[in-house]
């Protein structure tokens, strides 16, 4: 029988346990350790330095579930500063975790830093990558899969398995060399190839593909249906994705379930992610080609810029053979590709991250409160440097991040004067950002006056793609808008000599990046930020600045030398929780002896 003093001890211990465990209540935590370093690899047969996560290139896929709290402890073992960006993760109430220079000071070499964010009310296929210094051109990327909660049905039968594929153009020069080329005012030139999951092409042609290149093989079971998630993590090349003799049933695009349609191939532009349902319903007499080839180019001159992997049935009887499946034959006519993009529609009856149907948010009936026409141009000279612009402004990242400057009420770090239409004067280099209205409803027209395809990404939100067409946008163009089932996504294509219109509800307080995903143009200044402020600050709309926030720029003097034990404390909470459980169980055992 337990004594009164033993009961008192137990009650006290339980109170302490509950107090320490409060942070673990509610939604689950998922913990990741990322060691970012260089490794040597030869994806195209030429030895080069690539950026790996935990020694792997590409990095591991982060597999989480809606509303999980994600904790990523990052150890920077590069020789330069680092930030990781979680592209497509909306970071609701948590702009501090976005991993971009407008919101975060960089992680110095040899330092740890811990990201903590919640994938609140999100599902879908995304990816992460290093956002500084052109590093994505050397790797450091990996997939992010956000699964539905068990109680929320998915709008298709549960697939047999889930497969992540990273495709992208690739150079045999590393990011520092490519960066120097851009800073010298030169183009990067044609890529050396296309990688599929960090590997070069299968030797489908002895003349085009040299011997000895490692290629990706995906093994599948006949008769099963797989969910295949594909992201274009490259630099600037739009890619057509296809699997020989297999239909691609489109199911989801960057967090939105789509109307399910079959495609024999789909154009996937830089920064975009899709997931397909693919049934393994073909004869197993041979393997099948997986192809990612460059779009809108002379195929005979770009033959080497083709990624080829192998789809292998477990009962396959032979190797893939013959020519690759044909891409669309429209080098000079982009109408087919635009019509394909328009065919991607929102599944308004399916549940997304929440039980209610996606279409219950009737975006087409909301009044627009602010309009921006955002126009790019080909690279041009600005202040003696070859730069890229939006509305005549080439963005300059401040030494003190915008959100940090706001926190400490610093003046002169940026200007809230990004123009609502293209400037008529000469281009200029400035830190000019958009002053967004909290709970406003913004219309953005992206006008591509460049000669190449661009994709544009907005952090913090999913926007609705309501229209696109060739020519110059005008007020009359609104008559063509899709106000019912335009896809909600984070990255949209804008064809050369064309426009794309998006609508976005500014319900997420913070500082959010609007940029081209074409890495070369982004590096040279084609971006801005949207600042969304709640005039009545509250933790309900934005979480406080994290205790481990880094300082730089004007606030650099506030940065203390790194305390490694603190930097890794979030990861330690996982074992701390287990330890508390053991202490409590042991105490109960002692009391009742």
TrEMBL record:
GO cellular component, one term: side of membrane
One family name in Pfam for this protein: Cu-oxidase
Protein origin, superkingdom: Eukaryota
Protein name per Swiss-Prot or TrEMBL: Monocopper oxidase-like protein SKU5
Keywords: Cell membrane, Copper, Glycoprotein, GPI-anchor, Lipoprotein, Membrane, Metal-binding, Signal
Listed cofactors: Cu cation
Record GO terms (molecular function): metal ion binding
Subcellular location: Cell membrane
Family the entry assigns: Belongs to the multicopper oxidase family.
The species this protein was found in: Solanum stoloniferum
PANTHER family reported in the protein's UniProt record: MONOCOPPER OXIDASE-LIKE PROTEIN SKU5, MULTI-COPPER OXIDASE
Membrane topology, as annotated: Lipid-anchor; GPI-anchor
Signal peptide positions (record): 1-25
Annotated Plastocyanin-like domain residues: 36-150, 162-315, 400-535
